[in-house]
Amino acid sequence: MKKHIGVLVLGVTIIVVLLLYMVAFTVRWQEKALVLTFNKISREVDDPGLQWRWPVFQKVLKFDGRIRTLQQQLTEIRTRDKQTVIVSVYVNWRITNARTFYERFRQEGSADSADVIKQAERTIKGWIAEASNIFAEYKFAELVTLDASKFKLAALEKGSSDQFGGMQSRIQEKAQAGEGYGVEILDLGISRLGVPDDVTTSVFSRMREERQAVVRTLVSDGGKQATSITADAKREATILKAQAQAEAKDIRGKGDAAAAKYYQAFVQDAKLANFLRRLETLRKTLSERTTIILNSKSPPYQLLTTGSDLLRGEESALDEKKGTSTKAQ
């Protein structure tokens, strides 16, 4: 009996779980749900939690409301100057209104949420292809350049004040056309921008020529500056040299004038001049402890033994004066 009761409880539990599975469903915080009755929308559920439905007659479609990223495959596009570029564009988008989203992208014979999302992605890719025509409004040099002032890739993506809206603005206008599509285009960007192999060589050659032109300009400017600096330096050197020569000439003139005064004094008394020159020579050669072995008669060292002729003359004059005075006495 107990065994039958256990089987009965288990059976009832399974039936209750199956019934709950058929009549109840759960909506997560990031989901938006639609309850379809005979494939027609009967109600929209935005609040998370446990929800109820009629079994068999109703089914539930759930859509994730978080941000989705759609990556476009590489596509060749022509610029305004007939250059070919290879572009890959990405779009960040999300579902904002599940009812409108389902009604705009639902296909006949398919009511599955995955099929609806695939159709939405195909439609957005078509919008990207139409918006890519904006590349025909830009030159290749505005998309691939080293000059930041000429770089306009950001304006192509987002738009700018001096030009028509970019790719993102055009796709957003498509998403909001009419009653809308129940989606929001959050962001658009170019994930890859390249050129075919046959264009790469010409692009590098052009960029090399631009760099060489810049180098030539810098070298020319540097040469002009060097010439100007050299001329200024030569001019300053000439001025300084002239000033130095004038100052040297003035000093030489003053020295010659002073020497002339001394020369006149020496001319008046040649013996005194000769005596002073000899003393100067002795002072310079015997300034410190010095031992010299010379002939005592070698000038000017004979002064050390014989004295000066000038001094002897003065002593003779003194002796004559003394003798005269004695005789007179």
Please describe what this structure looks like.
By secondary structure, the chain is an alpha+beta fold. The protein has three domains: 2-60, no CATH class; 68-195, Tetrahydropterin Synthase, Chain A, CATH 3.30.479.30; 269-328, no CATH class. The chain has eight helices and nine strands. Strands 6, 7, 8 and 9 form a four-stranded antiparallel β-sheet that branches. It has a three-stranded antiparallel β-sheet with strand order 3-2-5, with no helix packed on it. A two-stranded antiparallel sheet has the order 1-4. β7 and β8 (84-95) form a beta hairpin. α3 packs across α5 (167-175). The chain starts with a helix and ends with a helix. The model has no long low-confidence stretch (mean pLDDT 80).
Which characteristics define this entry?
single chain, 329 residues, alpha+beta, Tetrahydropterin Synthase, Chain A, 3 domains, three-stranded antiparallel beta sheet, 8 helices, 18% strand, elongated
Task: Give a quick precis of the structure.
The chain has helices spanning 2-23, 98-105, 113-131, 153-158, 167-175, 197-268, 270-285, 309-328, and strands at residues 24-27, 31-37, 40-45, 49-52, 58-64, 68-71, 75-78, 84-95, 183-194. With 329 residues, the protein is an alpha+beta fold.
Task: Note the topology.
Layout: H1 2-23, E1 24-27, E2 31-37, E3 40-45, E4 49-52, E5 58-64, E6 68-71, E7 75-78, E8 84-95, H2 98-105, H3 113-131, H4 153-158, H5 167-175, E9 183-194, H6 197-268, H7 270-285, H8 309-328
Antiparallel strand pairs: 1-4, 2-3, 2-5, 6-8, 7-8, 8-9
